[in-house]
Amino acid sequence: MQIAIVLYDRFTALDAVGPYETLGRLPDSETVFVAERTGPVRTDTGNLALTADRTLADVPRPDILVVPGGPGQTPQMENEVLLDWLRTADATSTWTTSVCTGSLLLAAAGLLDGRRATSHWLALDFLKRFGARPTGERVVFDGKYVTAAGVSSGIDMGLTLLGRIAGDDHAQAVQLLTEYDPQPPYDAGSPQKAPAHLVEEFRSNSRFILTQERSR
Known about the structure:
Pfam families: DJ-1_PfpI. With 216 residues, the protein is of the alpha/beta class. It is built from eight helices and eleven strands. The chain has two domains: 181 residues, 3-Layer(aba) Sandwich (Rossmann fold), CATH 3.40.50; 33 residues, no CATH class. Helix 1 runs parallel beside helix 5 and helix 5 packs antiparallel against helix 6. It is globular and about 45 Å long.
């Protein structure tokens, strides 16, 4: 089974690495990082790069497709090379997945029309523009489409899908060996729990809100 994780300039590292460290533990599988061109692809901080060993054209029929999000997702929304590849890969994939705003790329490719999906909390309403049905759940299954909420939820998505494919014991073994046992120092991981002033600050400065205002 081939797992293809898409890279593009200014993706968020954990969006890709979370599924890589969990779903990538699928037995008898190959995980490949793909991009338009081979070579290093910089994350949103600019301080880290992952290497794409294959081009999109090299991997036309992955069994599992993983699309990370990040600030770089916005310009990719009009990248027909990537969007066409997503449509082509999805036509034969067993599972098509995303993390964070990666779901907006799936939606822009027309793959989430009428489907339940999630994304980063700041981007949820944006999904509606592309015909998706946004939900605030952390991991959402709709047929073969699996979308995860913001950044860290890619770990949950990877483990959940791993359990579906390889069984609960294998997924629990991966969780144990990675010692994924969240005990955060703050209970501020969602807009429902975080201090209101922080939620408002991020909402007012969100690239999605700014995009909506410019389009009015």
